[in-house]
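Please predict the structure of the following assembly.
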Amino acid sequence: MPDGAEPVLDVRGLKTVFRTREGNVHAVNSVSFHLRPGELLGVVGESGSGKSVTMMSLIGLLPSPPAQVQAGQVLLDGRDILHVSSTELQTIRGGRIGFIFQDPMTSLNPVFTVGSQIMEPLRRHMGLTKAQAQARAAELLDLVGIPDAKKRLSGYPHQFSGGMRQRVMIAIALACDPRVLIADEPTTALDVTIQAQILELVRDLRQKLGMAIIWITHDLGVIAGIADRVMVMYAGQVVEQAPVKDLFTRPQHPYTRALLKTIPHLAGPRGDRLQVIEGQPPILMAAPAACPFAPRCAHAFERCLRENPQRRPVGQGHDVACHWEAGGAHA
Amino acid sequence: MPDATPRKLVEVKNLRMHFPINSGILRRHTGDVKAVDGVSFDICEGETLGLVGESGCGKSTVGRALLRLYEATSGSVVIDGVDIARLGPEALRQIRPKMQMVFQDPQASLNPRMTVAAIIGEPLAEHTDLRGDARLARVHELMDQVGLNRAFANRFPHAFSGGQRQRIGIARALALNPRFIVCDEPIAALDVSIQAQVVNLLEDLQDRLGLTYLFISHDLSMVRHIADRVAVMYLGQIAELSPRDALYADPLHPYARALLSAVPEPDPTLESSRRRIILKGDVPSPANPPKGCNFCTRCPQAQPVCHEVKPPLLEVMPGRHVACHFVPPETATAGPTGGAEAKRHNQQGEDR
């Protein structure tokens, strides 16, 4: 991972609010992160932690209303894309930023052939002729490991299995050689043996194509096997960010620690009881004034209830948003 | 686990569940989806049997057929000495309280128009004489047992989070003091931090009430945590049925091996060094399973014999059952007695 390289994507202080009848839901609260060229950033968090909403807001995919991006900057290769016109945003989406969604069935159009769906971004963003686009589409299907690619172009999504559909989605996302690929829970809907196939494919493609990837998931196992760096989100905030090995060997935030302890393992000693995190994640009807994890935190003290902690460095490329320090000293 | 030879509470023999395919204008019967195709296993009293497999392998169908939510095509299901599959409607109703189910989706399995008290109280109204205050008292007791606040008894399901809704579903399943509970992916819809809460609750209840579980799940790490023995299903059949520690330490069936190797471990050092078996292709359709071994189309070790002859599920080591031509019985016989003296060459020649 080139450490000094300019980030391809630099997100600063992103804030997104949903206006609902019950009031404003603060879904993303001052999220900042960057992505270096060729890097795979894992984003983990439970449902409602704001991981998907963060990524959707930065490329303007949230319907507004109810969503409203209230503050922040999103620099793609140094240029703020949060305030560009919607036509320009359209050329960025599918062009320089590719997107893979969770459910390959609902994100492919059932009435168009797979070929025409792969060709669409090629013709739109790269101005290829029909014949060129067709050739490139076959190449892409071949790249993502679909046998007999040329013939499968004329197939419809329902003629593909779940794993194959996700391969098609990856082919579409890769069509225009994106600088950044955002993958939102791309393997969650798949079975483990198919997930293993897709993870293998992504590892392989990264080596071949060298794009930067943001991989959103709730599965810490997947992250461990694929990410360079990990960002843990809770209640719309980044609570910890670290190189992957650091995160698993010396997690600092009480939430990360608890999360790692709650999941049972496939190998190694088997505990009698699972550790639990009591309580529920909060629904933020106001911008958090205290640490949002404090009510569930075993280490919370008085300061946590009156001041929302800022992220502070605790190691090389490792930062944590927590007032509690003791953990850092002897972890 | 009790140390004395435990009593078998559930005995399933050769269970088949075929769903007919009707096609054409006349809706003629043209084939069957063989969702479950000859599955046999026992569950001892107080035991948890894990049933794992990928989507479409028939694990949920087994659970439902076991409680006769489906009418099985053939085979027998004996629960506590009674063959459920052959009971008449009234006799079945009498026995229903003994066996209950916890469903996957707590949102869909709770009636949104009923209060929590009404949901948990419904089985009591149906099967017991408890009325009025006595019934409410039992509902409160059940809510205490699963860790729900009594004050919420008059709320509706939508006011609860996913984990709490699953607790309501568990309380309802416990209402009639069942002996046997089928847990069909009870944690699949929940977040990781909530999954642990529900699994711990299920374990506590088992300890306290002596329950027997069939725990259906696709989460192999969680099954390792909760189950005593584990059955791995593939395309309507059991590929391997082994004690938990033996299976996870040394899976014998090639599918079990591939499945376990595909589960990502939350440990980057281990992940980078792990040898993975990546299976090619997809699961065949259960309407048209391959001839021979069901796994032969994807098996990395498949030989010509696998495409011809279906391997039976045999006890290859004490307590370990495997359906594969290339995992021959070592010490135990395939017979029901499982005599330890049997020699390794017995009747192998004729069988395969």
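The mean pLDDT of chain B is 87. DSSP finds eleven helices and twelve strands in chain B.
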